[in-house]
Amino acid sequence: MIYLDNSATTPPYPEVLDTYRVVSERFFANPSSIHKLGGESEDLLHKSRQQAAALLGVKETEIIFTSGGTEGNNFAIKGTALGYRQRGKHLITSMIEHPASLNAFAQLEDLGFDVTYLDVDEEGRISIDALKDAWRPDTLLVSLIHVNNEIGTIQPIEEIGRFLRDKPKTLFHVDHVQGLAKVPLNFKDIGIDLATMSGHKIHGPKGTGMLYMREGVKLAPLLAGGGQEFDHRSGTENLPAIVGMVKALRLVMEKARDGVPYLQTVMNRLRQRLAQHPLVTLNTPEFGAAPHILNFTIEGFRAEVLIHALEEEDIYVSTKSACASKASEASHVLLACGLPEKEAKQAIRISLSFENTQEELDIFIASFDKKTKELMKAMEA
């Protein structure tokens, strides 16, 4: 099997699965229980938070464990809007956010909040000037995806952070789900107040995630209950999954030292080879994009046809965001970048992990050439 859909989810590392099993068996007690077993679980939870914070360069009290990117984005966006609504009702985001963010903003609009959706250029990048023009004294939040999950475009997060640095009443939230380990951010240096991360994008268990919440930020909780996670996120902690996620974070960040340059090398070669194909138009920008995502359009037939054809070769790629891939409409990201609807429906996404090899990509190219020729012949018959 050749798996090239890592932006949707990654296969968990064997070491992570081993950790999950051991913690499930030995540390099954509720961390909130006052007996010895509960204390042992609480200690392990504390150590996991310390390790995650050290890996990310933040304080342990600034790490909130969540169920993943969707919850993290909803908590950051809605929690800010509801927690600081006395300051105003204006929020800023972009047209190419993940559905978890866009739908959260749509719900807030129904509650009377005013949302500005920034346009993007043909490469999927916002304009700093447009952001500056959109900002108002009553702007509560600027929320942007760091690495776009469909086309890999990197937003100018550092510049945005500099602009917002002297605007303390406007919080800055970054959806860092696709950038974690592959396009690193220093939350402190940039001035990020909130950052969403997901465990299953870094070879951790599904249903895990983290929200970096800068010290001093006070969000309105989405979940009311027993006051876990410093009163920010109630509910009994999924300790085996949390410990597994933090282990995955450590492993993937160790691999990133050599893995990121390697990904860039194999991605450049993949771009060159696909660019030579007569039916292919690349949608991911050559510069200012993440090293692991490549989006391209195939002239002549819908993307799903080729996806299923490649399945016959045991090769797995995708179209748009996995959260919306079963919907028939064209990618909202590609439409926002100016692609016609027909071309947007013909787009394929390849997303790599540090585990993918050059040999796998060579096999993919050969299979891609073979299947496109077969499909074209079938259409002409």
TrEMBL record:
Keywords: Aminotransferase, Iron, Iron-sulfur, Metal-binding, Pyridoxal phosphate, Transferase. The keyword Iron-sulfur applies. InterPro entries: Aminotrans_V_dom (IPR000192), Aminotrans_V_PyrdxlP_BS (IPR020578), Cysteine_dSase (IPR016454), PyrdxlP-dep_Trfase (IPR015424), PyrdxlP-dep_Trfase_major (IPR015421), PyrdxlP-dep_Trfase_small (IPR015422). One of its GO terms (molecular function) is cysteine desulfurase activity. Its cofactor is pyridoxal 5'-phosphate. Residues 2-364 form the Aminotransferase class V domain. Signal peptide: none annotated. It holds the Pfam family Aminotran_5. Belongs to the class-V pyridoxal-phosphate-dependent aminotransferase family. NifS/IscS subfamily. NCBIfam families: PRK02948.1. This is Aminotransferase V. It comes from Pullulanibacillus camelliae. The lineage of its organism: Bacteria, Bacillati, Bacillota, Bacilli, Bacillales.
